[in-house]
Design goal:
The complex is a heterodimer of chains A (266) and B (190).
Chain A (H helix, E strand, L loop, with lengths): L2 H11 L5 H13 L1 H17 L13 H10 L2 H48 L5 H8 L15 H12 L3 H15 L6 H11 L3 H12 L8 H12 L3 H12 L7 H11 L1
Helix pairs in contact in A: 2-3, 6-11, 7-8, 8-9, 9-10, 9-11, 10-11, 11-12, 12-13
Chain B lengths: L1 H13 L3 H21 L4 H21 L8 H25 L9 H23 L3 H11 L4 H7 L5 H21 L1 H7 L3
The chains are: A mainly alpha (266), B mainly alpha (190).
Chain lengths: 266, 190
C-alpha cells in the first residue's frame, strides 16, 4: 500500500474527512479486505497508545473465545469463582473489624508513644536490638524434620525460613499444620520467630505459648524464645519477668544465658 | 526466585487454596482499591475488578499458553488497571449514549477481556522493540503534546517532518504486530 492511503487511514480514524470523502473511503473498504485489516490495526494501535480509551475486540465467533467460555462455564471454574468471592468477603470483614479497632489502637498508640518517650528520656535502657542480635541464634531452634509424604511443606518452610523469606515460610508451615493435622508444638517455635520478624510480637508470643503449654520435652525453650521476643520489642520488663522464670530451674533451656542476659538488662 | 514466587501464587489460585488467595488479597488488593478510588471508582468497583482479574487469570492459565514475565503483583495490577480503563469507557459511552452498549453474558465479558488483555500485552511487547526515539515520539504524540513542542524537543525542521516521523513509527509498529502469529490467533484477522 502506498503512503497516500495511510494518510487517508489516519484522516478517517481521526474524523478528519469530509462526509463525501468518508463515504468514498468506506465504500473502498468494503471492496478491499486488505485495507479493512489495515484500518482495523491502525485503530487498535491508536486506542492502545491513547491510555484513556479501550477498544473491544470485534470478532465474537473466535475459536479462542469459545474455548475460554467453555472453561468459564465449567463446574471447576464456578467453584473457583465462589472461592474468590468468599476471599473477597473475608478481606472486607477483616478490614471492617480492623477499622473499628483503629480508634482504640490510636488511643493506645498515643499512650504508648508517650510512655516510650518517657522511657527513653528518663530511663536509659540497654540497646535491646543489639542484645537480641547477640542472644538470638538459629541453633537454639528445635529440629522438626519428619519422614512422610507431607514432609515437603515442612522442609519448604524451613528452607524459606533460613533464606529469610518469611511470608513463604509462614505459608508453608501453616499449610503443613492444616493439611497434616500434625500438632507438633515445636513448629510453633518457627512460626513464633516468623511473626517476630514481621513485627507481630503478640502473635509471636501466642505461638511460643502454644509450645510452652504443650507436653514437649523442649517446652522450656519457649520461655527463652519469649524472653527474646519481648527483648526485640523493647518490652524489657516483661523480658526480665520471663528470664526470672527460667532462672528458677537450672534445668531450663539456656539457663546460663538467661542469667547473663538478666544481668545485662538489670 | 521470581518464577518460584509466581508459581506459588499461580498454583494456589488454580487449586483454590484459601490461604494463598487470602494472601493475594492482603498483598495486592489495597493498591487496586487506592487506584480505582483515585480514578472515579468506589470500593465496590475495586472489589469487582479484582475478582474479575483473578478469575480471568485462572481461565487464562487453564486455557491459554501463558507465562507471567514480571512479578505476580505487578502483572495483577496492570490487568486491574486495564479492566478499569475498559469499564470507564463503557460508562462514558452510557452517559453520552454515543455508542450501543450491548448486554453481554458473563462468560463473554470475561473471554473478551482476556483476549483484549493478550492484545494489550502483544502491543506492549512490540512497542518495546521500537527504537527509543520512536517510543518517546509516540508517547508524546498520544499524550497530546502539540506538534510545535515535538518539533523543538526532537529537533525536527518542521511540523510536517514531525508528522512523517510519527507516522513512520506507527507503521513500523504495525508491521511488527502483523508479523506475529498471536495477532491472527486472538482476532481471527488472518
Amino acid at each position: 500500500m502506498d503512503e497516500e492511503i495511510y494518510h487517508k487511514i489516519e484522516a478517517y480514524l481521526g474524523g478528519d474527512m469530509e462526509p463525501e470523502q468518508r463515504e468514498q473511503f468506506e465504500d473502498r473498504m468494503t471492496k478491499d479486505i486488505e485495507l479493512q485489516k489495515e484500518v482495523r490495526l491502525f485503530n487498535e494501535i491508536n486506542h492502545h497508545l491513547n491510555t484513556k480509551t479501550w477498544l473491544n475486540i470485534e470478532n465474537q465467533n473466535n475459536k479462542s473465545k469459545e474455548q475460554l467460555e467453555d472453561y468459564i462455564k465449567s463446574e471447576e471454574a464456578i467453584v473457583l469463582k465462589n472461592t474468590l468471592q468468599r476471599a473477597s468477603e473475608r478481606f472486607k470483614n477483616s478490614n471492617s473489624n480492623a477499622s473499628k479497632k483503629r480508634y482504640f489502637i490510636g488511643a493506645i498508640a498515643a499512650i504508648f508513644i508517650i510512655g516510650l518517650i518517657s522511657t527513653i528520656f528518663w530511663n536509659q535502657s540497654p540497646n535491646a536490638n543489639l542484645l537480641y542480635d547477640e542472644y538470638y541464634t538459629e541453633e537454639d531452634l528445635p529440629s522438626v524434620v519428619k519422614r512422610g509424604s507431607k514432609e515437603e511443606q515442612l522442609t519448604q518452610g524451613i528452607i524459606a525460613f533460613k533464606s529469610n523469606d518469611y511470608e513463604k515460610s509462614l505459608f508453608s508451615f501453616e499449610n503443613y499444620l492444616k493439611e497434616t493435622q500434625d500438632n507438633d508444638p515445636l513448629i510453633y517455635a518457627y512460626i513464633g520467630f516468623l511473626h517476630l520478624e514481621m513485627g507481630e510480637t503478640n502473635k509471636a508470643i501466642l505461638s511460643f505459648d502454644i509450645l510452652l503449654g504443650s507436653d514437649s520435652i523442649d517446652r522450656s525453650k519457649a520461655l527463652w524464645y519469649k524472653s527474646l521476643a519481648y527483648l526485640k520489642a523493647n518490652r524489657l520488663k516483661e523480658s526480665k519477668e520471663v528470664l526470672e522464670i527460667i532462672m528458677n530451674d537450672s534445668l531450663n533451656f539456656n539457663y546460663k544465658k538467661a542469667v547473663q542476659l538478666y544481668k545485662e538488662l538489670d | 526466585m521470581q518464577n518460584t514466587k509466581n508459581e506459588f501464587y499461580l498454583d494456589g489460585l488454580l487449586s483454590g487454596d484459601e490461604i494463598v488467595i487470602d494472601h493475594i488479597y492482603k498483598k495486592a488488593f489495597p493498591q487496586v482499591i487506592a487506584f480505582i478510588k483515585r480514578n472515579k471508582g468506589t470500593y465496590e468497583d475495586a472489589e469487582e475488578v479484582f475478582q474479575d482479574a483473578l478469575f480471568q487469570l485462572i481461565a487464562r492459565l487453564k486455557v491459554r499458553k501463558f507465562e507471567i514475565k514480571s512479578t505476580f503483583d505487578g502483572y495483577l495490577f496492570t490487568v486491574c488497571k486495564n479492566l478499569w480503563r475498559k469499564e470507564l469507557n463503557i460508562r462514558k459511552k452510557r452517559v453520552r449514549n454515543d455508542g450501543i452498549v450491548e448486554l453481554v453474558s458473563e462468560e463473554s465479558k470475561h473471554s473478551s477481556f482476556i483476549l483484549e488483555q493478550e492484545r494489550w500485552e502483544l502491543f506492549e511487547e512490540k512497542i518495546q522493540q521500537l527504537s527509543e526515539n520512536c517510543m518517546k515520539l509516540l508517547k508524546e504524540y498520544f499524550n497530546k503534546v502539540p506538534y510545535g513542542i515535538i518539533v523543538k524537543k526532537f529537533n525536527y525542521s518542521s511540523e510536517n517532518v514531525a508528522f512523517q516521523r510519527i507516522f513512520k513509527c506507527k507503521k513500523r509498529l504495525a508491521n511488527l504486530i502483523k508479523k506475529d502469529s498471536r495477532y491472527k490467533d486472538y482476532t481471527n484477522h488472518g
